[in-house]
Amino acid sequence: MRSYNYGSFKGGRGKKVCSRPAVEVALAWQNAGAKWIHVVDLDAASGRGSNSHLIADVIAAVDIHVQVCGGIRDEAILSKVLATGCQRVNLGTAALEKPDWCARAIAEHGDKIAIALDVRSTSEGYQLATHGWNVNNGNLWDVLERLDRQGCQRYVVTDVERGGMMSSPNLTLLREVCAQTSSPVIAGGGVSSIDDLRALADMYTLGVEGAILGQALHIGKVSLEDALAATQSPRG
Fold first, then answer.
1. 94 touches 70 (CB < 8 A)
2. pTM for the model
3. What pLDDT, on the 0 to 100 scale, is given for residue 68?
4. In the chain, which residue ranges form alpha helices assigned H by DSSP?
5. 140 near 126, Cβ under 8 Å?
6. Dihedral angle computed from the Cα positions of residues 76, 143, 147 and 187, in that order, rounded to the nearest 10 degrees
7. Which element (helix H / strand E) includes 113?
8. If you ran DSSP here, which 8-state letter would residue 112 be given?
9. Is 95 left (phi over 0), alpha (psi -120 to 50) or beta?
């Protein structure tokens, strides 16, 4: 795999990320070599509000691509987010609860739409978690089959038990998803070390095209420079 170029931060309830202004953090990642920044609006995802103004400030400040997710559940919100100039949005809850609208969004916006598959392992198999990971809502394989038929061009796959926990990505889950779709997959959570990134990079030929770095970056366990260096060289 030649590059993993996703940094991430979560908007949360304020204008700071890890005690630093969000724009400052985004510019630091850009200067460190990031080509994409992944922005999560946690308030919108959980229905507590919106940080759209903060997201717009970040997009205006940087010269690299921005991917936005969190609470994008209807046409009005989608249009507002796309109007910020972001290159891509992730749809999550809406992909399950509004399948017809999701299909129209994919048809209209193409590669600007990625679907977030937030997965929880249960006694009934892999279930998709929605509403900020608080509700189990649909079988992974049934939903993936439908989204492939609708023309989804990219998936962001997260094991919700590992997202933000730095317990390493669920490589088995990623392999299984890649085996079921020809669309590229982004690993959405759990990265805690350079070794995790190397393991994901080795899955590039299977369909894993990138990884979102969040908590490991924020607490300094992984530097973006080291992450990029470990994954931009051709592998295998």
1. no
2. 0.87
3. 93
4. 22-32, 42-45, 52-61, 75-82, 93-97, 99-109, 140-150, 171-180, 194-201, 215-218, 224-231
5. yes
6. 90
7. strand 113-122
8. G
9. alpha
Q: Is residue 36 pLDDT above 50, yes or no?
A: yes
- Are 118 and 158 within 8 A, CB to CB? yes
Q: Is the dihedral of CA 90, 87, 84, 219 positive or negative?
A: positive
Closest to 152 in 3D by CA, of 96, 82, 232, 77: 96
Strand 65-69 relative to strand 113-122: parallel, antiparallel, unpaired? unpaired
Question: For residue 87, with 0-12 CB atoms within 10 Å meaning exposed, 13-18 middle and 19 or more buried, which class applies?
Answer: middle
Exposure string of 3-15, with b = 16+ CB inside 10 Å and e = fewer, is bbbbbbbbbbeee
Q: Is 157 in a helix, a strand, or coil?
A: strand
Q: Has residue 130 got a pLDDT over 90?
A: no
CA distance 135 to 132: 8
